[in-house]
């Protein structure tokens, strides 16, 4: 059985959050689906709220610190990605978009991606199609057909999902598992691909 790595990006702002809850449901379903396709999986989770200050510093300085670089490398080096954001004003959150903005333009090319979103009302459900899907199409990611939206009424009691949400989660997870299982493992990230100090500076002793 071959092994793949799954990165999970959650842009929830609170602890606990419905965004992380949905991300966990999608992750569990994908982890259960992959062995059926002959693939073992390891999971790495990136909580963007922990990197909010790092992301702001990156925007103003142009450099990622060690913690943010680790998060970026996790996403770039993964064989598949689950990306979940809360929806504000009919679009993805600013925190989610900021993380996407610090990725290299070709970082997600061809990467299988499952999109998820949460909001306080089901009226925001189309944000997955008119905001998130075009964003990842621009990044040339391979987005699965089923995107999963969860409104408060989709959680029947506490963190228990309704049958409708459970069905959407399983369908989307199966689509992601098909894509991940059908691709060769991703090459590990090259730690020397973007050195903080140029080789010219090193030669000059800078």
How many domains? The number is 1
Largest sheet: 7 strands, mixed
Count of alpha/pi helices: 7
Helix-strand makeup class: alpha/beta
Total DSSP E strands: 9
At CATH level 3, the topology is Rossmann fold
Radius of gyration: 18 Å
The CATH superfamily label reads Flavodoxin domain
Mean pLDDT: 90
Instruction: Please tell me the CATH architecture by its name.
Output: 3-Layer(aba) Sandwich
Unreliable runs: none
What percentage of the residues does DSSP assign to strands (E)? 15-25%
CATH class (first level) name: Alpha Beta
Q: How helical, in percent, are the residues?
A: 40-55%
Distance between the termini: 48 Å
Order of helices and strands: EHEHHEEHEHEEEEHH
Shape: globular
EC number: 1.5.1.-
Protein name: FMN reductase
Pfam families: FMN_red
Organism: Blastococcus carthaginiensis
